[in-house]
């Protein structure tokens, strides 16, 4: 049965007219409500549908391209070399720039969700802004790295691990931000994983610049909890392992020292290089905090455990001794320095009590160690969970410049202090 909504006339009784009008208005409202609901559904569902289609397409593409490969199986070592040699990550031209690497894409910020994590997710940009505002760096002299592609990441990571990042729940576990689990993965890829991949590109490139110029600083990177097969502790990609494998193949070196002075144990690179005699690992960490990775601890060449509450003088004294031992144990061709600032007094996660001046002195000691031995050094900034970390890192870079441990550079007729 249908209701004759449009048959009203002025001859009809008033009460009847009103009833029909109410019915007409009610039906119109219902229609509008239905329309709005449909639009809302489409608005919410479209990204999911697009993402599903994209995934299906990429899965189809990867399966068809893998099935088109020759039947002869290429060994893992050759495949790794092939991937490294065909990578574009060494391409950015830095000949007229300072070997400080940063992209505005490093910084993570969306919908305020980054505020749910104690990590200052825009510290990388803040470091550069401090340096620029104080005349130690020009925007045009900063080296902008490329994003590490899937093929680049496969140099160290397994297919299974990279595929696991297509699930937002896994990314939420790795970044330790539970709400990330609720977000569609395309958004997580764009706003969280892309910035990380760009930072990975920066760490890989830093080794090349360090070999050319003696030193390089990636203002990001230092994801030392991630290994080829597993992420964790805010580390989704193993940038240090990737950097070193690229250096072995492209820079023709075979001895690398990792000096890991973040407050946490660097279990990612330790798992990746556990049985690799080309890599010497000096790790100075607090054994009473995350990650408690006892297997990885077996792979540290030189372990220095600094207990909770260790203060500046004691810390720097242990560092002096450790560097002396490392220098006599191993002669590297490249140093990768993981310079986490979570050793700072007051850091809620690091548990140590090193002052800002102590951090600056620490970085100076490591750069002096490299300079005295004429070993190229890569620095990555790694952990540092307080808003004050960016200021301390900027001050440390300024100190390295003032101490002559990183060279001045002439650019556009003006003397740049770094
Ligand atoms: Zn840390």
TrEMBL record:
Q: Which reaction does it catalyse?
A: N(6)-acetyl-L-lysyl-[histone] + H2O = L-lysyl-[histone] + acetate
Q: Which residues form the Histone deacetylase domain?
A: 117-398
**CDD domains according to UniProt:** HDAC_classIV
Q: Which GO terms describe its cellular component?
A: histone deacetylase complex
Q: Which cofactor does it need?
A: Zn(2+)
Q: What class of enzyme is it?
A: hydrolase
One of the entry's Gene Ontology molecular-function terms is: histone deacetylase activity
Tell me yes or no: is Hydrolase among this UniProt entry's keywords: yes
- E.C. code: 3.5.1.98
What domain of life does the UniProt record list for this protein's source?
Eukaryota
Q: Where in the cell is it found?
A: Nucleus
Please report a single Pfam family linked to this protein: Hist_deacetyl
Q: Where does this protein have coiled-coil stretches?
A: none
Q: Does the keyword Disulfide bond apply?
A: no
Protein's UniProt name: histone deacetylase
Could you tell me which species this protein originates from? Gossypium hirsutum
Gene it is expressed from:
LOC107937978
